[in-house]
Design goal:
Helices cover about 35% and strands about 5% of the residues. It is mainly alpha-helical. A two-stranded antiparallel sheet has the order 1-2. A hairpin with a 6-residue loop joins β1 and β2.
Length: about 130
Amino acid sequence: MFHKIEDKLLSEDHVWISVAMLHQQFCLRNDFSRNEISEKSVELGFVDDSEREIFKAHLERHWIANIPASQENSRMLYETTPGGNIRLFRPGDFTYASRGDQKYKPPKSVPRYQEIPEEYWQLLEWYEDWITEK
């Protein structure tokens, strides 16, 4: 599910790419609605239009640092207000205890170069600058 561009691209990585691209496209905005993130994921070909609602459910349960974890403990995103908009996770953001550091498998907050297509590597470089901005 949600692996349209490349079979090895994890859903948590494609949502991170989608939100990072929104941040670049709308650099004056701090956060984005779930609908905007869903639309960007469809636009990029990561999600089929028919999978939007499933995708939004995954957003809620799996990737937001300050919401209790269900199965995955990744913290790719951060909810700026309860039930509100979302942005990329930044080091130092509050993390719900169930997503905190774990001894054997630390939570993932950013894709690794080898896990995403080369065309998106510039997003990782951009992110390093973005996390230091105030």
